[in-house]
Design a protein that fits this description.
By secondary structure, the protein is of the alpha+beta class. The chain has a five-stranded mixed sheet with strand order 1-4-5-3-2. A five-stranded mixed sheet has the order 6-9-10-8-7. Strands 13-12-14-11-15 form a five-stranded antiparallel sheet, covered by helices on one side. A hairpin with a 7-residue loop joins strand 12 and strand 13. Helix 11 runs antiparallel to helix 13. The chain is globular and about 70 Å long.
Length: 500
């Protein structure tokens, strides 16, 4: 985590325009010893290339690649302008964060900032707050109100080791700068506490930097010292603010969500929000799924994020994106703030889901933007995994039976119950993928009982990631010349046990 001394925060500042605000930020960075003289020109140059306004009243002016050599140490200078500063295109900035960063450090820094500032209510509070200690606590994610973050949730881990699950959690907490090395070594070497129902708890009295919780769940339950292991919670405790979350672990409904729920449901359960009930999601007309490899040398920082937003904003389609490589929830792809918060670096795989009448046009525009480097130069070498675009037909009306089919001129679909004793692990998933590949059809699948998105049924990794266990309902949607044959073949192979 980057250091943010309180004297780097300037509340109730005043500036006549955007340039003066940037000049103030540059001067503060230089005075604090983060940059050398001349960095201001890089910040102004970056602003001319692309606006650094992220949304929610937040702007993050920073230098160009050419002035990165002037950065001596990574740091930020924060200015609050309660009256607001016109930032162009009708946007007004109330919090301006001048950034100095070497190499790709800025991506981790931006990721932390945007996860804090991505909430409209939080951003609005920072715009007028007059307490520098509280301002810093909110910005650093150290506010009194504790909540579990999506980045610390790991599901469907292919392991039969309690130590592995604990190590994953410890690494997640360390990524969040919530624990120190002493915590990691101690928690790995200490015995876990069984909570019952296959849930285990690990913690340490050493190296707790701030309140945080990480959760990892195995793909299949296993035994440890004669007791069942299904999932592990690892907790870092700095103060009593985490106690309310820990108390929820005793709730049977919360435990059920931890053991069977999706990431969204687990977060809701741990954070005391209304639990999401598994339900069949409504599928809008014209759903298109695109998966692209980020080729930008310096990742998805502010400039390529802005280019991406500008590419999409002319389309009416609703578009979300998730970082498949890092994990996390899908976010609004038309928000620069949310895009930067994905923390995507070179070669990360991003999956976009577009829904609407112009979804296909939007996805084609995205593919072109990625291939051209999102406004930056990229290598001509193709990515290790090819970019893909799949068109999913609109949802047809399906009856109440657990297995049925719907036909149309464009495609077909079916819902089938998984009967495999150990769920959809690697071997049956491979059998399923091989069956799907036999047909001249585009096939997508979702796990209705986990409320997942539709994913390609020709991808082994995505099939396994559905987390399907015995009794789960899998919905397949096929389009193309052999759509109905594909649905029929999939139904037959599932009924036959997928090779088991």
């Amino acid at each position: 985590m980057f250091n943010l001394p309180e004297n780097n925060i300037h509340l109730a500042a005043q500036a006549t325009d955007k340039q003066q605000a940037i000049e103030m930020a540059a001067a503060a960075l230089e005075q604090a010893g983060y940059v050398e003289s001349g960095y201001l020109q890089g910040m102004l140059g970056r602003e001319q290339q692309t606006s650094t306004f992220l949304g929610n009243g937040i702007a993050i002016p920073h230098g160009t690649l050419e002035t990165r050599g002037l950065v001596k140490n990574t740091g930020v200078a924060v200015f609050q302008f309660p009256q607001g500063i016109e930032w162009g295109e009708g946007n007004k900035a109330y919090v301006v964060i001048g950034i100095a960063a070497r190499s790709d450090e800025h991506l981790a820094l931006l990721r932390q900032l945007t996860h804090v500032l991505g909430d409209e209510d939080t951003a609005a509070e920072l715009a007028t707050l007059d307490d520098v200690k509280k301002f810093r606590a909110i910005l650093m994610g150290e506010a009194e109100n504790f909540s579990v973050k999506a980045e610390t949730i790991s599901l469907d881990v292919d392991t039969a080791s309690l130590l592995t699950l604990t190590a994953i959690n410890a690494a997640k907490l360390q990524e969040q700068s919530a624990v120190e090395n002493s915590f990691v070594s101690d928690v790995i070497g200490s015995p876990a506490l069984p909570l019952g129902n296959g849930l285990w708890l690990t913690d340490s009295a050493a190296g707790n930097a701030k309140n945080a919780l990480a959760f990892s769940r195995a793909r299949n339950a296993f035994e440890h010292n004669g007791k069942t292991v299904r999932a592990v919670l690892t907790v870092a405790v700095k103060d009593d603010a985490v106690n309310e979350t820990l108390a929820r672990l005793l709730d049977a409904n919360v435990q059920e969500q931890l053991l069977t729920g999706s990431q969204e449901q687990i977060l809701a359960a741990l954070n005391g929000e209304e639990l999401v009930v598994n339900a069949k999601p409504a599928q809008a007309a014209g759903t298109v799924i695109g998966t692209f490899t980020l080729r930008n040398e310096h990742g998805l920082h502010a400039r390529p994020s802005t280019i991406l937003v500008n590419t999409l904003k002319s389309f009416e389609a609703k578009i979300t994106v998730e970082n498949l490589t890092r994990g996390g929830l899908a976010v609004n792809a038309k928000s620069a703030m949310k895009l930067v918060g994905l923390g995507a670096t070179k070669n990360h795989r991003l999956r976009f889901v577009a829904q609407g009448d112009d979804a296909k046009q939007a996805m084609d525009a995205l593919a072109k933007a990625f291939s051209e480097g999102l406004g930056e130069g990229v290598s001509a070498a193709p990515p290790a995994e090819p970019d893909t675009i799949e068109v999913v037909p609109a949802e047809s009306t399906v009856g109440a039976t657990e297995k049925n089919e719907a036909k149309s001129d464009e495609g077909a679909e079916g819902i089938f119950v998984l009967n495999n004793e150990h769920g959809l692990h690697a071997r049956p998933s491979a059998v399923l993928v091989n069956e799907v590949k036999k047909y001249n059809a585009s096939v997508a699948v979702q796990n209705l009982d986990r409320n997942t998105q539709l994913v390609s049924a020709k991808s082994l990794m995505k099939i396994v990631a559905l987390g399907a266990v015995k009794g789960h309902r899998l919905r397949f949607v096929a389009t193309g010349e052999e759509a109905q044959q594909a649905i029929d073949g999939i139904g037959a192979v599932i009924e036959a046990g997928l090779g088991e």
